[in-house]
User: Which sequence fits this backbone?
């Protein structure tokens, strides 16, 4: 007899309120399992934003290298 069959047989002998408690516990275990699986997925190494953006580095030409050092490029904005 499988574990599932044993659980179902024992569950049938319980009153409805205890069956509800058993269902609540099973749902708790499912949630706990999903959270554990999700946390393991988060720990896997990913790709950094820098790695994703490297192919675009230097694709624009002709603009100022840094607007913060040459405020004249910002003249007329926001007026």
Assistant:
């Amino acid at each position: 007899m499988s574990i599932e069959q044993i659980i179902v047989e024992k569950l049938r002998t319980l009153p409805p309120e205890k069956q509800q408690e058993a269902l609540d516990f099973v749902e708790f275990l499912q949630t706990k399992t999903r959270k554990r699986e999700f946390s393991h997925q988060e720990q896997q190494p990913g790709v950094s934003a820098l790695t994703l953006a490297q192919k675009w580095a230097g694709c624009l030409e002709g603009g100022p290298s840094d607007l913060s050092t040459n405020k004249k490029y910002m003249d007329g904005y926001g007026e």
